[in-house]
Amino acid sequence: MDISFSVRLPRDARSLPLMRGLLRQALEHLDVSTQAIEEIVLALTEACANVVQHAGEHEEYQVDVAITDDVCRVSVLDDGQGFDFERASAPEGSPLEAGRGLVLMKALVDDLQFVRSDDGRHRVALEKRLRAEPKLRLLQS
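The structure corresponding to this sequence follows.
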């Protein structure tokens, strides 16, 4: 079974629990493992929190979710200025939390991309495999 949805949310910290709940319920409905659910929801939280904190004056952002039997893809889009992911590491002397969300997202998902969409918006794309890669079976004679 596949589930996909798109949500436009106000750029407000109160939107985060709503988005977490929607994603969690969809993943639970598809019987995704608890560990995978927690990892995906935490990565989504970090991506949305970055938008809420850094997207500038824009009033809303969008979250697109596509879940299949094998993979969960989440995109968080905003109209902010964006940033250079390669140069976003925390500078020396900055607070411990600076850059922590990027490190967490990278550790929690299988693929993380920061791209500028064709429509000019900035997209954080998260992808997490929901099933382990098939193991090779040794043939016995």
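The mean pLDDT is 83.
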